[in-house]
Amino acid sequence: MRLGFFRRSSAPVARERLRILLEFERRVGGADLLALLRDEILAAIAKHVTLDPDKIQVKIDRGKSVSMLEVDVEVPNSDGALHATLLEAM
Amino acid sequence: MGKVVVVTSGKGGVGKTTSTAALGAALARSGQKVVVIDFDVGLRNLDLVMGAERRVVFDFVNVIQGAAKLPQALIRDKRVETLFLLPASQTRDKDALTEEGVARVIRELRPKFDWVMCDSPAGIERGATLAMRHADTAIVVTNPEVSSVRDSDRIIGLLDAKTEKAEKGERIDKHLLLTRYDAGRAARGEMLTVEDVLEILSTPLLGIIPESEEVLRASNFGSPITISNPSSAPARAYADAARRLRGEAVEMSIPTDKRGILNKLFGRRAA
Hints:
Chain A has 90 residues and is of the alpha+beta class. Chain A has helices spanning 11-25, 33-48, and strands spanning 56-61, 66-73, 82-89.
């Protein structure tokens, strides 16, 4: 059991989470830069190698000032996996 | 094969999403492999309650339309590693979820998870019937309040008519989860009692979740209450309900938040 006056207040956390989320969701027409980059990066790679959907891992983390898009692609018949990480400043 | 559970209610705002997150997390914390699915296309919120809203890459509709593979759309919880989320899409196209698409996703998830928990949208439209379609078990979330009880009754009728099990002539397992319960007010005759609701709906009780400030606090932080504050009264009630869901015989009780001396002095509620 934690004591009341030591507890972090929760409303500021909620406010900040909503601010970040809504700023992204309000963009007209749902123009989602990270999703666009994700699709274009995968399309660019697909031009050169056959992509196995099971060998692709995409991670997104939308932050306050910086969001991260991480695309992990295992490229067959080369010396290991090509790892592309892209940092997008917002 | 995993169990498919629908968390439903008819009425909105009674605690379906909160309960899906809390029960899913409670099951996952006990070592079960759990996926929670948001069926509320266009109005997703389970991601927010789970604290995964910044990490959504692909969603349910992407998987159904073949734009992504299921494993790519599943978001693993950062706190409990056996807990996964399949987020709803934010598209306005309510028909984006297809009957066949949902069937395929459930078929794919069932052998990989112990529990597939479907968070239903409010209402009795397509989204709600798709969420309950493949369920083995239904959790009907009800507040001790007249309109919620009435809507629960309608949903119970739908469960007995529109689910795959019902159509095959089998019985779907139904449980009532009474949320936002205030034992004091019920005792004073200001609120329907547990007995009142059970008598009206004649459906077995899965648990009684006491009204508590802790529920809002957990949602503000984006954490299922059974993870962020497992010792709180509602979290203990959810943990008990999760054990009953697993078939354990757990005596029915309404946990309370005990107030410590310091908190009494400062007039704040303890965890």
